[in-house]
Amino acid sequence: MTGDFLNYAYLIGLVLIAQLALVVIILTYDRHGNPQRTSENLGAEVTHHARLALAGELTASIAHEIAQPLGAILNNVETAELIIKQRQNAADADLLAPILADIKRDDLRANEVVNRLRALLRKRELKLESMDINPLVNSALTLIRADANRRQVQLRIELEPDLPPVAVDPIHLQQVLLNLLVNAMDSMNRTAPASRFLCVRTRLRAGSSVEIAVRDNGHGIDPANACRLFESFFTTKEGGMGLGLSIARSIVQAHGGTIWAEPGHDGGSNFAIRLPLPQRQHATRVGIPQLSSPGG
Amino acid sequence: MELYDPLTSDHRIYIVDDDDSFRSSLARLLNTAGMFPVPCRSVGDYLLAEHADCPSCIVLDMLMPGPSGLELLASLAHQRNAPPVIFVTAFNDIPATVQAMKAGAMDSLSKPLDTKRLLQSLRDAISRDARKRVERRELEQLQSRYSELTPCERDIYIGVVHGKLNKQMALKLGICERSIKSHRSSVMRKMRVSSVAGLVKTAKILDVLSAPPEAQTVN
Q: CA-CA distance, A72 to A62, in Å (whole number)?
């Protein structure tokens, strides 16, 4: 009985150490940078904001992933304490109680670290301005034009004129657009250069929302991955962090909008963002996990 | 250790959480504390689980694949006999907590769970559900008694609880005072009450007091 508990305690200790090591590794990785995501053509300000958002999303994901096992460990320690109290086997209790108390204290300490990380995250707020999104799309396209030329990608732009204004945070939304555009170009690395195209379209949908669609003829979306595209840490790119689309979704949802992906008609993929017009817009802050499914 | 005394009556605590280790550790904790947990991996699992006919409550995780905790909460809000819900957010997210309480959650806790608070909250939830079940049974009984009344007896029932005199009711319904008296005693018998005060109490539970008496008595 004592042996079991000791083994269990060692196991919990090991798990805790492994988790802390993971945090350190990921944070170090983040500090040294992640060059392939932000190409040199992008403006310095945009890069800065992208990195802030990346750090924020990384923090949120780590906090969530670590809080779960920490919570389970705490439940198990409480259970063990309860069993010891119920059995009243004095010899065992004297040995085990301090061990369990230590595990509990360390668990709560690790949890406190997680909470402090979250407190950092909460400071990100949106600065909404009512604006036409076409100039915003144009400025994002200006930023990637040189890169597109280098990669021999043709840009096709169809912007519906006279769109009603929507309330957006321009810097954050531009970051989402850049992410979709860079992803689209990355997906066409194996497409024949002559047929590479990137189509960006804006339009008014049913008088209630404004839609921005980014279409490419790259490698498309593997149906097996379709439901995981927007998850944190899910990536199909070599060396990718798997946070770009996850951040994009947080930002779009914070605007009260939706973002989803679908396979293109002729191969490739189509990513679309729908932003509600102001009377329907219920903006929340970045970082709240939202409940609607993509495209829902 | 009064807190850890096992609940005396039969009950179920549904734990709806997608995280395997969290769910099973919580089930183990509740088992040890003398409760009857039913672990469910998703909202779908909860809906398909065998629902024992006893007081119950749900410990509901906020974010899960498939329907979320809030979505289940919203759908339970339409059910009269839904068990109380204790909401669990993965972190101390105030907007989510507010959302959950607005949607009808009885309590909202954040992970890691404070065991004492959780067990107290579960006790409150189970005793609240037990009370609600008793109230529901009473209401169903009264409703079936009320349904046995004839239309004329119902008019008199409404009249009596509104404090109308036999004479007034006789005038309004166009029947003689003697018939009113006999109807009145059969109302008392069918509703199984011995006094006007008892009758008023049943009327309050049945919620027939809100309608103005004229609308129901004059046709």
A: 16
Measured between CB atoms, which of B22, B71, B96 is closest to A68?
A: B22
**Contact criterion met (CB below 8 Å) for A12 and A5:** no
d(CA B111, CA B117): 12
Query: Quick check: A72 contacting B, CB < 8 Å?
Result: yes
* pLDDT tier for residue A291 given thresholds of 50, 70 and 90: very low
ipTM of the complex: 0.70
Chain A hits for B1, Cβ within 8 Å:
85
Chain A to chain B, count of Cβ pairs less than 8 Å apart?
76
Whether the CB of A105 is below 8 Å from some CB of chain B: the reply is no
Which region holds residue A3: left if phi is over 0, alpha if psi is between -120 and 50, else beta? alpha
Report how far Cα B219 is from the mean position of its chain's Cα atoms. Answer: 34
SS (H, E, C) B156-193: HHHHHHCCCCHHHHHHHHCCCHHHHHHHHHHHHHHCCC
Instruction: Please say whether the beta carbons of B166 and B180 come within 8 A.
Output: yes
Residue A266 pLDDT greater than 80, yes or no? no
pLDDT at A43: 59
Tell me which chain A residues have a C-beta less than 8 angstroms from the C-beta of B93: 288
User: Distance (Å) from the C-alpha of residue A247 to the closest C-alpha of chain B?
Assistant: 17
Among A80, A73, A107, which residue's Cα sits nearest to residue A96? A80
* Neighbouring residues of B9: CB distance < 8 A, sequence distance ≥ 6: B54, B55, B126, B130
Query: In this structure, what DSSP letter does residue A256 have?
Result: T
Residue B153: Cβ within 10 Å count: 17
Q: What is the pLDDT of residues B109-163, one digit of tens each?
A: 988 888 899 999 999 999 999 999 999 898 999 999 988 888 888 888 888 888 8
Over the stretch A130-150, which tens digit does the pLDDT of each residue have? Answer: 999 999 999 889 888 888 888
Phi, psi of A205 (to 5 degrees): -110, 120
The CA distance from A186 to A188, in Å, is: 5
Q: What is the DSSP letter of B37?
A: E
By CB atoms closer than 10 A (0-12, 13-18, 19+), residue B4 is middle
Nearest CA in chain A to B19: A68
Average pLDDT, chain A: 78
A74/B32 Cβ within 8 A: no
Q: Which of A75, A284, A285 sits opposite B113 (nearest CB)?
A: A75
CA B140 centroid distance within chain:
12
Sheet of A209-216, strands arranged across: A154-159, A197-205, A209-216, A269-276, A258-263
**Helix, strand, or coil here: B7?**
coil
Average pLDDT over every residue of A197-225: 89
